[in-house]
Amino acid sequence: MESPVPESRTQAVDRAIDVLDALKDAGRPVGVRALASTVGVSPGTMHRLLSTLKERGLVQQDEESRAYWLGWGLVDYSNLLLRASSRIAEIAAPYAERLSDLTRETVTVQVPAGVWCVCVFEINGSHELQRRVGVGRRIPLYAGASARSILAFLPKDIVERVLSPDALVQVAPNTIVDPRVVREHLAEIAAARLAWSQEESALGIAALASPLLRHDGTAAGSLSISGPVERWNRTSMAAFEEPLGQAAAEISALLGYRVPASTDLEVVVSDQSSNGG
Predict the structure, then answer these.
(1) What class, spelled out in words, does domain 77-274 have in CATH?
(2) What is the location of CATH 3.30.450.40 in the chain?
(3) Residue 82: partners with Cβ closer than 8 Å, 6 or more residues away
(4) Global pTM?
(5) In this structure, are residues 209 and 146 in contact, taking their beta carbons and an 8 Å threshold?
(6) What element of type H or E holds 115?
(7) CA dihedral 10, 16, 18, 22 (to 10 degrees)
(8) What distances in angstroms separate CA 143 from CA 23, 43, 162, 186, one per listed residue?
């Protein structure tokens, strides 16, 4: 068996990520001492972290001010992510547009990214009062219909990491933070291929979502319809469950998913559940 990663190495990775997050949040070049204060380390430790990140191209340093900023090396990672996400968005776009025309509500395509769910495509509704998600917005994979419809079809190890008790925090008024209750929802989603939520990821917003599946039955993303709870709620959603589910099934087919040959639905659901649903 491999020996566990030393705590110091784990801390160094965490701190390096904290540095990148601090630069992202600052939105401008930042000096060593300011970064050290933000991350909570000594200036000496911060200098060593920045030196390593600079060598890897993940940060760069202004020659005049000596302040640090995000490096061009990050573009390589983002380009790979965008290429993968853009294929899903490109395939799903016409279906999202039709659903938005049909419901007059906002339709999004969201994809998994670690323990997060990230919006990669959005068609805004036509109502004067409408839901705006924003491409790039991320939410935890347990919070709301869009996220849970993905989580229900992810591998078990990811599900366990997402649902560790200390990882679940309140995002909106109705966010479910009880792992047992979330698991119950995941089982229902795995069977129905539909998820709904109300004020779980944003105040005053409800959503209806369906998973987008890869060839192996794991989630590539989700297709979601969302709007203000006064207008878009469990009652009004009912009429659009079938068109949403059909659209998600057709997108999944284009992504390579094939419905298992067995006609026994319980067996199919059981197999998917053992893979993380």
Answers:
(1) alpha beta
(2) 77-274
(3) none
(4) 0.68
(5) yes
(6) none
(7) 180
(8) 27, 37, 10, 12
Nearest CA-CA partner of 206 in 173, 251, 249, 182: 173
Question: How many other C-beta atoms can be found within 10 angstroms of the C-beta atom of residue 11?
Answer: 12
One digit per residue, the tens of pLDDT, for the chain of length 277 reads 444 444 467 788 888 889 998 988 888 899 999 999 999 999 999 999 999 999 888 999 988 889 999 888 876 666 566 555 678 888 999 999 999 999 999 999 999 988 899 898 899 988 877 788 888 888 999 999 999 999 999 999 999 999 987 889 998 999 999 999 999 999 999 999 999 999 999 999 999 999 999 999 999 999 999 999 999 999 999 999 999 999 999 999 999 999 876 534 333 333 443 343 3
7-71: in CATH 1.10.10.10: yes
The one-letter amino acid code at 201 reads: S
Radius of gyration of the chain (CA): 21
Q: Which amino acid is at 172?
A: A
